[in-house]
Structures are given as C-alpha cells and as structure tokens.
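Running log. JK asked me to keep both predictions on one page so they can be read side by side. First protein, sequence followed by its tokens:
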Amino acid sequence: MNTTRRQLLGATGAFGLTALGSQFRARAAESSASPTEVDVVVIGAGLSGLMAARRLRQQGMKIHILEARERTGGRMIRQTTDTGAVIDLGGQWGGETHHRFKTLVGELGLEMFPSYYDGKGVLVWDKQRIEADMAKTPESSVLLFDSDQIQQPSAEIAKAKAAMKLFREIAASVDPSRPWNAPNAAELDRTTIRAWCDKNSGSRLSDFELEWLSVVGGSGGFDPWDASILHLAWTQSVAPQDEAPEAWLLKGAAGQVAERLSAELTSQISLNSPVHAIDQTDNNVSVQFGDGKRIEAKAAIVAIPPPLRQRITFTPDLSAETRSFLQRSPMGSMIKVFAIYKKAYWRRKNLNGFGVGNLKTLELTADSSLPSGAPGILASFVTASAAVAFQQMTLKQQHRAVLDDLIAYWGPEAGEPEELIIQNWNEESWSTGAFTSFVTPGAWTTYGRGWQQSHGRVHWAGTEASTRWPGYFEGAIEAGIQASKRAVAQL
C-alpha cells in the first residue's frame, strides 16, 4: 500500500454525514421563515416525506416540511469521494418490481443501469472459497447460488432446500397488511427465527440463509434471536428477495433523487427543525418545533422511523397499543462499507463481485461500479450484533477486519483499495440504525393491528409504514403517496 493510499484509508474510515458538505443540503427556508398556517405539515424530509409533500403540492395544497437535520434526504444520501467516485451512503438499489421508484426516476430524467451479475459469485463457507453461478430460480438456490456448484454434501443441500421451502410457504400465507391473520400466527410470532431453525432446519446452510435474510437480506439488520419467524416471513411477503430487489442502480447515485425533489420544494422546507409536540382538535393540528415555534395545519404526515415517533408528544396521546407497538419496533444495526479500487478487477476474472459468506465481519459484498468498471466499487455491510462489536473497535482494527474479509472473498488485490469508507448509521441520531425497523417476538399478534392506522389527523409515512417493499425506496414512495391520500381525504 503506497503512502497516498495509507493516507486515504486513515482519513475516510469513520465518515459521518455531518461532513458531507453543502452539495447535500437543500437550499431550504430557515425555520424562522416558516409559515404559521398550511393545509398539511410534513414531518421528515426523507424520500417518503418529500414524495408526500410533492403529491400534495401537485394537488394545490399549501404544505410545509419540517426536517430535524441540517440536510434533506434522510437515509437517501450520496457522497463524492476523494477519488471522484459517487456513492450512496444509504440506500442505492432499485428492483424489478419497484414500479413507483422507476417512474419517479424517469420523471426526474435520471439514468438507470443494471446491477452487475455477469460471471460467477463467491461463497465463503467455513473458510472454503467457492466460485458459483447465481441461481436462476429459488428452487435451485442455496444462499442465492446454484446449489449444484457450492460443493456441499448433497444431504445438507437437500435439508436446506426443504427448510427454505417450508419458510417460503409460511411467507406466502402472510397477508402484508395483516400478518396476525396468518395460519398459526400466534405460535409463529412467539417463535424466534433461531428457535424455528432449531426445530425445522437441520442444516447449517438453511440456518445461515435465514440469518442472512434477517441481518442483511432486506429485513433490517437484526439477529435471528431478535425477531419471530412470523416477522421474517412478513418481510419476505412484503419485500420478497426472490423478486430481485437489487436489480439496478443510478448513474450519479440514488441520492440525487432526494436532492432534486428537495430543489422542487426548497421554499417549503425548514431544516434544523425537530418536532417536539403535535396537538390536535377535531378540525386542525398544531405542531411545535425548533425553539418553540408552531405551525397550524388541517393534517400532519409523520414520515420518520417508528423509534423517532416516540420523541414527539402527542395530544391527545397515542393509544396504549400503538405506543406498545412502537416500543417493540427498534431499528436494526447497520454499518455500510465501500472499498473503492481503480478498476473492478474481479470482472476480468469472470467474477461479479457478489459475495456471501459466514465470515466474522462481512456477510455480503456487491459490485456497485458503473458499467465501465472504473472505478471499481464494492459495497458491503456490517450488521446486527456484528455491527455492535465492530463499532467498539479502533479505526485500525475496523480497517483490518474489513480488509481481511474482502481478501477472503476477492483475493489479495482486495486488500489494496484506493479508499475505504465506513458509514455507521447507528451513530446517526435522526436515523439510529438500519434501513428499516423490525418487530420483536409477539408484537405483531399482540399490538400490531393498528400499525398503519392514522391518529386522528396525523398520518404515518416513512418506508416502515408501507405494505409494499418497506426498507426500500419503493416502500418510502408508497407510504408517502398513501399518507398524502389520507390527508387529502380530510381536507
């Protein structure tokens, strides 16, 4: 590693969003200039809040957005690195059935390109490195790879497929909007993922596949003992990994979507304006924010993650069941990692950058490079309890842990990145964790029935409020649109 590269690695290891620079901040109105009365006030300027506000303004409504951060975008934020690469520190992918997101991208004139899956991926299993093709169907898959190529005992593969078949049957029985109505829901909701595996898996391969779904596979960065098998099945009912949710990327990164929406709404956004209280009557809401300011509206849309809703005082108060459900809906733990190289060197070896393994730090890598492969970008994640342990390491130890696993996947060249960027979402006070929340055992069947129900004139948005692709941009857009419809119905 040359001197310049050492300097880069030392400088970029713990990159916080507060250091992103003015290019990521909306030219928004100061809170002192915010109006005193609007039709709808939107709380949160992430993608969901921005979409709700945009829809309302298109229908002639007077709106205003209150954002606690000094920037817009929420968990949709991009960064230009020292080497000139543009990366998404938060979400980045679109999927084959993410129709609303694809439509929005077209409206904004942005360019999509397919994620790179040409060639073989890599499975690292018990320190053995195996190159294998991606599975063409769920039935032929183990850990997303062609089961005939992963060099595991046929009996283990058969057990793994049988367990995943049973799990998929449970997921197919779950109503996305009413998981508590699934057959045997109460028992499934009391059974952790880990306990279900002990009874139904019989294979370390399927144990790991279900763990992978919980820690990084679209579900929210939680361990298999943190949530029930009902909750995991629900995540695959509303956001099925079999429907290729990481199918495409955007040139210039996805974060520019939030930037462009913010530019459309500049005069209707107040930054540095956390909301403290929402009081409502039969006819209006009064929102207290910032340093004691208030704004009156006919309705409010709260487009923030469930744990952050608990920072707001509601009058009248939320129902006891709603409070209990929020208390049982924590954010997962998630740290995103980028290793940036001059070129995507793995491509010349007929490898696609997709890696899965039972390694200590990185259980997933994915090629996030442009079609040209220059620069070469590997995105990865440190999740759940591994993320908690990781963030207690020194910066030098973090780098070593990441590089060791990258080398295990992609060979010695992986240990020589031009830049290594680590974004710890657990340290973001207005996110507090992963790309979505999860639900603890028993919560769906005991407290979940009102999870999407409006609180009078207060309506819920944010990706967690969606029954389509929660945890993804598609879910954020869906929730924002549905909340705007409910608000309009009251006006």
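And the second, directly underneath as requested:
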Amino acid sequence: MNQKSLYERLGGYDGITAFSDELLPRLQGDAQLGRFWQNRGDDGIAREKQLLIDYL
C-alpha cells in the first residue's frame, strides 16, 4: 500500500500556502468574520497565516 499522505495530496507546503493565500483575504472580507481582522497589523496577519499553514 503506497498511498500518498494527505500533506502530499494537498500539494505539500506550496499547495497549502496557495490555499491560505486565497482563504485569508476571503475571510477578512466576509461581513461576519471580517471584524476579527479590522484592527490587526500586517505582522499579526502574517503570523496568523503561518499558523494556518503549520496547522494544515
């Protein structure tokens, strides 16, 4: 049984990064969820993005 891991099937680091690059701006622009990013600086958002990538 030589199946690829979920990480590999998601495209590895590059695939997950591309996913988070698209997801975070959509969440920030959402009418209900956008308030969580209103007063965040660029450093905080970058850190959050890295945590998302690491989590996935």
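Observation for JK regarding the second prediction: The helical segments are 6-9, 12-28, 42-55.
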